[in-house]
Amino acid sequence: MMVTVILDRQSRINTNDLKARLDAVSGDRPRFSTQELTEFVNLMQVYEGAMYEISTKLEILDSEFQVRFAHDPIHHMERRLKSVNSIIGKLKRKGLPVSVASIKDNLFDVAGIRVICNYRDDVYSVSNYLSAQNDISVLRVKDYIKNPKQNGYRSLHVIYAVPVFLSSGAHYTPVEVQFRTIAMDYWASLEHALRYKTDLPDAKLAEHSQTLLDCARSLQNIETQMQNIHRDINGAPQVEETPKAG
Ligand code: GTP
Ligand code: MG
């Protein structure tokens, strides 16, 4: 008999580490009180729980597709909790108060999951099946696949509210899920790298940005052609609708 260990605590929230980081970045005031530090750690634990709830739902959908259609819609997933530095940086950038209440009220991407799918059909079928589950709700949808950004960025962004059950009851918590294809992910990684390359001359940057825009269009064409072949040989659902909020 094979036994699988399922409680693996390695990657869980480390309270002391979080407190130390928060103390370090809030050094220039406003300082967090001990009570706020505790509230922050508790809040991060809830975000982490919400992230696990959604990833499990996605894994279950993926395995159902495997069983029903002999097709894995999800190529892989990445998940992350926003770092203390990015949380505080974002609040400051948006001119919002730096407090635990402000994080809860204003940030919807503290818990984030990126779902990299094989085809565009998979993006829409997985996101629609997840959105239809009646224990969670859809807070916001941005379809940059149907309406790509000016730079060529394509992805489907959905913010879900997920109940996390603690000893105190259900806590509805937002999770930002970015659904994209392998081609979209390939493109976004390079564009992201270019954006953070600040020592490039303007002319070079403009040239690369233009090339990237051309690449986005080419990748979109390739993706469509390959998806058509896949549609012909695989019975997985063919879905093109954007999930709806509310
Ligand atoms: P902020 O979260 O405040 O930035 O605004 P928003 O919630 O309206 O953002 P949006 O949903 O448009 O995008 C959020 C995330 O999508 C970013 O943090 C990136 O991970 C990704 N993203 C958005 N636009 C781009 C882009 O042009 N290039 C790349 N590489 N990633 C992008
Ligand atoms: Mg965002």
TrEMBL record:
It comes from the Bacteria. Pfam families: RelA_SpoT (PF04607). Residues 79-202 form the RelA/SpoT domain. GO terms for biological process: guanosine tetraphosphate metabolic process. Keywords: Kinase, Transferase. Signal peptide: none annotated. SUPFAM superfamilies: Nucleotidyltransferase. One of its GO terms (molecular function) is kinase activity. InterPro entries: GTP_Pyrophosphokinase, NT_sf, RelA_SpoT. PANTHER family: GTP PYROPHOSPHOKINASE YJBM, GTP PYROPHOSPHOKINASE YWAC. This is GTP pyrophosphokinase. It comes from Bifidobacterium leontopitheci.
